[in-house]
Amino acid sequence: MKYFFTFFIFLWCLCAGAIPKHEVRAVWLTTIMGLDWPKTRAVSDQSRKAQQEELCKILDRLQKDGINTIYLQTRTRGAVIYPSSIEPWDGALTGRYDRDPGYDPLAFAIEECHRRGMECHAWLVTIPAFKIPDAKALGKKSLIYTHPKLLYKKNGSYYMDPSMQGTADYLERLCREIVSRYDIDGIHFDYIRYPEKTEKTKQEWRRDNITRIVRQLYNAIKQEKPWVRVSCSPVGKYRDVSRYSAKGWNAYNAVFQDPVLWMKEGIMDMISPMMYFKGDNFFPFAADWQERCSGKVVAPGLGIYFLDPNEKDWDLDEVTRELQFIRQMNMGGAAYFRAQFLLDNVKGLETWVRNHYYTSPALLPPLKNAREYSTNLKRTPRYVLYASDTYPVDINNPENIVRIFWGKPQYNKLLAHLFGKHLAITQLDNFGNESEPMEVER
User: In terms of C-beta distances under 8 Å and separation of at least 24 residues, what long-range contacts does 91-99 make, across chains too?
Assistant: First the structure.
């Protein structure tokens, strides 16, 4: 039966569906230890500029690859990449914890993402704090000094205790600080769960603790700016499915997450489960997430680092079949872990994605709960420019999308390229809903 299912998936993927107009195309851009960015340390005016240029080059490439969402690691482990009143600077920026790089990397990244028509989501590592030797190296803002009672030791690291109300309150302060101060498009929670190999006693109590944190953070974010998209990256398998075992590693029983409940309750807008698997460990579990999503967006996280010969040396078609399956199943999109392996074009993935999969731009799916959050707050206006050889311009065809703009569109640079085309423009509201098109006067 398992082999039949795999063969069925193979045949199905050969008939991948058309490119959707709305689709999440995300990458995790890792800052811890400078894994994806930054490679340069900002310790002078010259190196600061080099660090910024490095990010711009990364975003330029990702834009050309069709990526529309950046999960930017904003909180690593007890440290952040913006000037916070709560936590210290991360050491990846300057080579030393709690050292100011001389600019605001989060504000810079948001502006540069928007300049390229991409959303920027602040990726926050939640429950893990830091390795024990780093506890004091983080300086006076380290949790070991400010909130020691929220921490406990496990496997050589400190973790925040999910059972304590103070943990939820502390994480809420971080979320409110980011959302209130920045034009951020989303908050993305990582490791919002118990550590591996936690005792299996009190399972329901532990799941309730994590759900309570998720609920509190979601409501706090929506109170600040209801259009900010809240997402997370749960463990890649929810539970065992019919005929396929999760082999002991699943969200519900192993680390006490219940993302299915979160989506059903409406306290999670989108999930990118870490589905770093292949074959029968991927397809039935991806289908299971989609069946349980309660109308929310599921954009599976793909472990593209396994393509690397130094990792598991997967063949390219392991990933391309997963991408084709995601689209054929009408899932919400995909996320890639991590950016460097896409940019390194490992096994030709970047070439394939650019030339065969993301051949037209895409908008993110509108937030389904938009009507529940009426607000007088306004975000930077966003516009979508379309061009076509035919009139009227078909805005339902993603091949006609030219560019997504944050702020007033600048047409001058595009007019030569679009000479002779029929143009139309729409505006996106706070929640991503699109207006009727208007003809653009040239």
Answer: 92/31, 92/32, 92/33, 92/34, 92/38, 93/31, 93/38, 93/41, 93/42, 93/51, 94/41, 94/42, 94/43, 95/41, 95/43, 97/134, 97/137, 97/138, 97/139, 98/138, 98/139, 98/140, 98/141
Distance CA(335)–CA(276), nearest Å, equals: 11
Q: How far apart are CA 342 and CA 338, in angstroms?
A: 7
Confidence of residue 15 (pLDDT cuts 50, 70, 90): low
Cross-strand pairs, 434: 428
pLDDT tens track for 375-401: 667 888 999 999 999 999 999 999 999
Residues of the chain with CATH 3.20.20.80: 2-369
CA distances from 87 to 110, 129, 198, 345, 442 (A): 20, 11, 27, 35, 49
- Whether omega before 338 lies within 30 degrees of 0, making that bond cis, reads yes
Helix (H) or strand (E) holding 422: strand 422-428
Write down the CATH superfamily of domain 2-369. Glycosidases (3.20.20.80)
pLDDT band at 3, cuts 50/70/90?
very low
